[in-house]
Amino acid sequence: MTIDLIISRLKNRYPPGKFNSRDPFRQLIATVLSQRTRDEVTDRASGKLFSKYGTATALAGADVSDIEELIREVGFYRIKAPRVKEIARIISNDFKGKVPDDVDTLLSLPGVGRKTANCVLVYGFGKDAIAVDTHVHRISNRLGLVSTKTPEETELKLREVLPKRYWRYINELLVRFGQDICRPVGPKCGVCMIGEMCPSRRGE
């Protein structure tokens, strides 16, 4: 399997466009809100939240009940509301309002796992990192790029097999590909642009 060819075809279909498009703090909070929540719901909720509390200092001073009301659409909003307030407090007090740009420090924040930390590095700072969500985990295994059981294992294996120049692109490419073609149920193998290279391709 040619990784270069796979990436090239995916880029042709889904031209990357999200890099450095978001403030790191907003990217951090939005990614925390996105956990177990659809993208369109996350976008609406984070838009409401940031329209009222646009900085770490402002969000740190918000009432949890007000945050809950603004993000009510997202899953587990009662858990996420105090979490994002605490993240904002730490960013404001400990980091002078600036989101740290290294994975270990990001992982020290409440509710921040490897996917969230890597999303902040990629989309907030434009750094080379591999953010593995359910799409990236599923499709990487379907394509035979890795053979792993967990997203954490997938990240480590992709770091070994994927040239670093592709790291920052892989999340957006596979998320869009997973929503469009390589769906969890009923993948559109018959119209897949990389189907002939996929060991999991289904006959249609």
Structure description:
- This protein is mainly α.
- The protein has two domains: 3-16 and 131-197, Orthogonal Bundle (Endonuclease Iii, domain 2); 24-125, Hypothetical protein, domain 2 (Endonuclease III, domain 1).
- Helix content is 57%, strand content 0%.
- It has eleven helices and no strands.
- Helix 2 packs antiparallel against helix 6.
- The chain is elongated and about 55 Å long.
Question: What's the structural blueprint in terms of helices and strands?
Answer:
Elements: H1 3-13, H2 24-34, H3 39-52, H4 56-60, H5 64-70, H6 77-94, H7 103-107, H8 114-125, H9 134-142, H10 151-161, H11 167-180
Strand content: under 5%
> What is the CATH homologous superfamily assignment of the largest domain?
Hypothetical protein, domain 2
- Cα radius of gyration in angstroms: 18 Å
Series of secondary-structure elements, N-terminal to C-terminal: HHHHHHHHHHH
Alpha-carbon distance between the two ends: 22 Å
Task: Tell me the CATH topology of the largest domain.
Answer: Endonuclease III, domain 1
* CATH domain class name of the largest domain: Mainly Alpha
Q: Which residues form runs of ≥5 with pLDDT under 50?
A: none
Biggest sheet, in brief? Answer: none
Number of helices: 11
Query: What's the β-strand tally?
Result: 0
Q: What is the overall pLDDT average? A: 93
Short description:
The chain has 204 residues and is an all-alpha fold. The protein has eleven helices and no strands.
Fill in the keyword field for this structure.
single chain; 204 residues; mainly alpha; Endonuclease Iii, domain 2; Endonuclease III, domain 1; 2 domains; 11 helices; elongated
